[in-house]
Amino acid sequence: MSSSLWPAGPRRVLVVGIDGVRLDLLGQLATPALDQVAAAGFLAPVEVDEATPTMSGPCWATIVTGVTVAKHGVFGNHLGGNRLDVFPDFTTRLARTHRRRTFAVGGWDPLFLAREGGPLFAAPGRLAYIGPLEDTPEAWEVCDERATAEAVTVLTGDDDPQASFVYLGAVDETAHFLGCGEEYRRSIETADARLGRLLAAVRSRPGYAEEEWTVIVVTDHGHLDQGGHGGRSTLERTAWVAACGPGLVPGAPVQPVRHVDVAAHVYQALEIVPDPHWTLDGRPFTPATAPVPHPAGA
Ligand SMILES: [Zn+2]
């Protein structure tokens, strides 16, 4: 059988999902890698919409499918009853429909395994599940470290994925165990160092000068001071997205950024026009200098 993969072209996308990072604390922390992405593009708040519980399951499902809970049907951290077969994540859709090489890695079971109603990432071209040995902040740091190492290997190797998703979970676990204190802040800085290694891996690619990379960094929800989420408080429902890449200029997007926009932007970054039958609810990020449309007839 000959390979029927689509020729790669210059476009590539890396999405890094860091679970449970509070926007209000970022300004007090050393996050040089995230700052690089934001300086080349933007870092914008995202409000988890009214219909979506501020839980990881539904928020990540919205982020990677580009449709809201009304369509993907993930309402909690048990993903059962979902409609992900109709509204797949972008790594699965790109692999199945567009014959692109895709990759997803991380350690939270329902995202990667047929457990708890998962997986969210049904069939990327390459999938790596690296789970924690126990549910503790320390074990999750080990897990994130190994997921980062695996991602660096894949991003610099022969697989050459055109769209990748890297999940980091230690920050959220730390908040649940210890609240949003010193350990939580250090965990965010550690996650940023891992993001830095992923960015360095991308830049080290032999073909990097000819490639056009989009990088999106995103969190799913916030946390109460004592740790915990699921409610509608400002701290819980405030998430954020940072992104840079072709078509994005430095500065705040013209339109507010939503979780559904992430997958829509991934498709645009790969120059794929979504089929209307996908009924995406998201739209690509609107760059800072995009002209504001005039009202009809004006
Ligand atoms: Zn959580």
From TrEMBL:
One of its GO terms (molecular function) is hydrolase activity. SUPFAM superfamilies: Alkaline phosphatase-like. Signal peptide: none annotated. Gene3D superfamilies: Alkaline Phosphatase, subunit A. It comes from the Bacteria. This is Phosphodiesterase. It comes from Streptomyces tateyamensis.
